[in-house]
Design a protein that fits this description.
By secondary structure, the chain is an alpha/beta fold. It has 16 helices and 19 strands. Strand 6 and strand 7 form a beta hairpin. The chain binds flavin-adenine dinucleotide (FAD).
């Protein structure tokens, strides 16, 4: 075993936050506001974290538009739409704390839309009983991110945009920091900390069509946690948005907002048929997200899709001015990326991997993981969304639980009498980087292997899965994993991006294996998880699935909601979706 690299830089802090999206920044702000030392690191610029893509809004039962709304209704809507796999404790905590989260964001200067009398505007989102979604045009994520970055800067939070974390440092079952490298010059970095908050996002970029951009949501949170000894939960539960762009290839999967269908967009196959008449004759294109994703998938799979593998979404029957006024961002997106004028031509679309509902197992109230001092939060954590995420709930999850994990990490740090260190753990982390850089003899580089993995996941673990397909996926994954062990990593004068891609790939391989294993084990169709060989929901599988590398998938019982929320769930009518955004 080699010693830690000689050029490794050491830093120490009370709390290390990995990730500068909404979840990581909110945690860092909590720590700084309460006088704790915090270092917040990311592999990408803080003003360009994945969070900036969030468009439609953020939920809280404020009752500004519908005074009868309460946190209890918010909790009931979330649990009902999660197909009974959400953790009721997480849901109830979120719904109760959501109004305070919006207050925090307003206090930090986030400019949400307001009514003429100054009240915050709230709009409908899919499957919410009342108008409870705050928004800032269709740039809500960007506005929230801007406010958080500004507040963190005001508080003097120490931040780094160039530190790629490769491993969490653990001694026994207690975290004591993280190991990584500087993306620009490759310098190894050791950050010693009493507590670590993992806010490193999800794993939806491991599908060929994904609403995430390159190099984000590559499964890093899952790999870092699993390698540290944590369990993952419900990794098979991935939300596919029905409409992502198909071309150009580099933009494949980019979201085509549900507002297009909300404004009257019509879906057709290549026979010119308005196929939603067969799948949901009443609601047509305003049906639920999972139904439309399945319909689009089926049309394409059964050969009625376009040559490029999509269906057509047409808004050109509306007059041009209406499209430009109601869908300006979509108009610009298609002109910029595809040189296509959507006021004259239909868009080619297909389902796109959009949100990781599974992730790192956390204890409901504190979001502590299986490792002491280690917390997970945001899209990389699990518990809130079950088998179907409600639009607008993920941003508020980041803000509510960001604050909570900040407070918990501070409490943990203050409770310690002695800090632990473990030179062997640091040396192992250093070896991992060194070995990857020394690998030679393979025929592959990280980028082509990333592509191969994304193709594999799309083919075998997309919208519809089956035992045969999932097993074929696992076999293919073994081949890719073997190539990862010999791939060449060649940082050059331009920086250490190639090493970052290699670690991204390692994260993606682990996340893919967990997804395939859990998808095999969930022998039923529920929410976003469709099994062609098990088309019905199985009451015996009203369970969460737990995954650890090399172990059989285990089951965890879902707890019951409180009697107050259970009463609201009884006899609950289906909430209409027509005219409600679902992002
Ligand atoms: C197109 C689109 C629209 C959406 N619209 C909405 C919406 O309207 N409402 C809503 O509630 N949700 C929406 N979502 C979902 C929501 O945006 C995300 O779930 C949320 O922003 C995730 O935030 P996060 O803080 O958990 O992670 P992210 O914002 O993904 O941040 C992850 C951070 O971790 C860092 N990181 C990752 N790996 C490493 C590593 N190895 N080392 C160091 N740093 C690392 C990254 O650099 C980044 O800073 C949308 C998503 C998409 C794609």
């Amino acid at each position: 075993m080699t010693q830690s690299a000689p050029d490794a830089r050491r830093t120490a802090t009370n709390v290390l936050v990995i990730g500068t999206g909404a979840a990581g920044l909110r945690a860092a702000i909590e720590l700084a506001e309460t006088g704790n030392q915090v270092l917040c690191v990311a592999k990408r610029r803080r003003d360009d974290a994945h969070t900036v893509l969030a468009a439609g809004g953020i939920n809280a039962a404020l009752g500004t538009m519908d005074p009868e709304d309460t946190w209890q209704f918010h909790a009931a809507d979330t649990i009902a739409e999660a197909y009974h796999l959400a953790d009721p404790k997480v849901v109830e905590l979120l719904a109760r704390e959501a109004p305070a989260a919006i207050d925090d964001l307003v206090r930090y200067g986030a400019e949400f839309a307001r009514e003429e009398d100054g009240r915050l505007s709230q709009r409908y989102f899919g499957a919410h009983r009342f108008r409870r979604t705050c928004f800032a045009g269709d740039y809500t994520g960007r506005e929230i991110q801007r406010a958080l970055v500004r507040r963190a800067a005001e508080l003097g939070v120490q931040m780094r945009d160039d530190l790629y974390v490769t491993r969490l440092l653990v001694s026994g079952a207690r975290v004591f920091g993280a190991y990584g490298f500087d993306v620009d010059d490759g310098t190894r970095q050791i950050v010693l900390a009493d507590a670590v908050i993992l806010a490193a996002g999800g794993h939806t970029r491991i599908w060929r069509r994904s609403s995430s951009r390159r190099d984000e949501n590559t499964g890093d949170a899952m790999r870092l946690a699993a390698d540290a000894g944590c369990r993952l939960r419900d990794m098979e539960l991935v939300q596919f948005h029905p409409t992502g762009m198909i071309s150009p290839e580099e933009a494949a999967g980019t979201l085509v907002t549900e507002a297009v269908r909300g404004e009257g967009g019509i879906l057709r196959n290549t026979d010119g048929e308005r196929f939603m008449e067969r799948y949901d004759p009443e609601r047509l294109e305003l049906s639920t997200r999972d139904r439309i994703a399945l319909a689009n998938y089926t049309e394409i799979a059964e050969g009625r899709g376009t040559e490029a593998g999509g269906v057509l979404l047409d808004i050109s029957h509306l007059d041009r001015e209406t499209v430009l006024e109601r869908l300006p961002r979509m108009y610009r997106q298609f002109v910029d990326l595809a040189m296509l004028d959507i006021t004259h031509n239909p868009m080619e679309v297909a389902p796109t991997a959009h949100y990781s509902m599974g992730g790192v197992w956390v204890e409901a109230e504190t979001h502590q993981t299986d490792i002491e001092g280690l917390y997970a939060v945001g899209e990389g954590a699990t518990g809130l969304h079950g088998a179907n995420r409600l639009g607008g709930n993920s941003l508020v999850e980041c803000i509510v639980f960001g604050r909570i994990v900040g407070a918990e990490a501070a409490r943990w740090s203050a409770s310690l009498d002695v800090t632990v260190r473990d030179r062997a753990a640091i040396a192992a982390a250093a070896d991992e980087v060194a070995e990857l850089l020394d690998q030679r003899g393979g025929e592959e580089f990280p980028r082509p292997l990333q592509r191969a993995l994304r193709d594999l996941m799309s083919e075998h673990a997309g919208v519809v899965r089956s035992e045969t397909g999932l097993n074929a996926g696992l076999a293919g994954l073994d081949t890719i994993a073997a190539q990862v062990d010999t791939m060449e990593v060649r940082p050059d004068i331009a920086g250490f991006d190639d090493l970052a891609h290699a670690f991204d790939l390692k994260g993606s391989v682990l996340a893919a294996r967990a997804t395939l294993d859990c998808a095999l084990e969930r022998r039923e169709t529920r929410g976003a998880h469709n099994r062609s060989d098990f088309p019905d929901q199985d009451p015996d599988l009203t369970m969460n699935l737990l995954w650890r590398p090399g172990e059989p998938v285990a089951r965890e019982t879902v707890s019951e909601p409180s009697s107050e929320i259970s009463a609201l769930l009884e006899g609950r009518d289906e909430v209409p979706v027509a005219g409600r955004l679902l992002e």
